[in-house]
Structure to design on (174 residues):
């Protein structure tokens, strides 16, 4: 279910996960009339994750007694002009830059597009310093150890693609 998996390959983005799910569905099911519409995908995207982790009715919904997790977007951003179907705009165009306010469990954590719980600029600066120190501390032994693992990882990927899973997983552009 969307929103229940870790984020090891990029920033966590629930809308991006839902959008990718819609695109992948189109690769595997040519019956476009069977594809769920944007409103259904968004609704399920918010509530199915809650059901998957046993929190249905407590998170992923806006109702009395549920956690108050709310995001307010600025529909004036160019992504949403001209505004057509708001569900489609949210699912297919929103990238997070329109975020104006966010409440998590009733506490406001973003106000006017700025995180209120931390100093973002200081955190980014500190992270840059840590990354620079980390890069400079990598020894030749560590880099050689990573390089030694490359053949096994390459073979794992090739083996994965070699097996027939009943559908084509690649787009052959050659």
């Amino acid at each position: 279910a969307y929103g229940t998996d870790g984020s090891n390959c990029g920033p966590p983005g629930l809308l991006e996960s839902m959008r990718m799910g819609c695109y992948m569905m189109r690769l595997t099911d040519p019956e476009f009339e069977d594809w769920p519409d944007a409103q259904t995908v968004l609704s399920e995207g918010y509530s199915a994750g809650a059901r998957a982790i046993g929190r249905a009715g407590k998170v992923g919904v806006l109702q009395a007694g549920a956690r108050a997790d709310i995001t307010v977007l600025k529909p004036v951003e160019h992504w949403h002009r001209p505004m057509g179907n708001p569900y489609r705009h949210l699912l297919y165009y929103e990238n997070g830059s329109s975020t104006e306010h966010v409440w998590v469990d009733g506490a406001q954590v973003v106000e006017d597009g700025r995180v209120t719980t931390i100093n973002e600029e200081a955190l980014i600066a500190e992270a840059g310093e840590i990354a620079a120190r980390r890069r400079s501390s990598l020894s030749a032994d560590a880099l050689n150890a990573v390089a030694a693992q490359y053949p096994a990882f390459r073979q794992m990927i090739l083996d994965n693609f070699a097996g027939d899973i009943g559908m084509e997983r690649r787009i052959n552009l050659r």
Summary: Helices lie at 14-28, 38-52, 86-93, 120-137, 140-162. The chain has a mean pLDDT of 85.
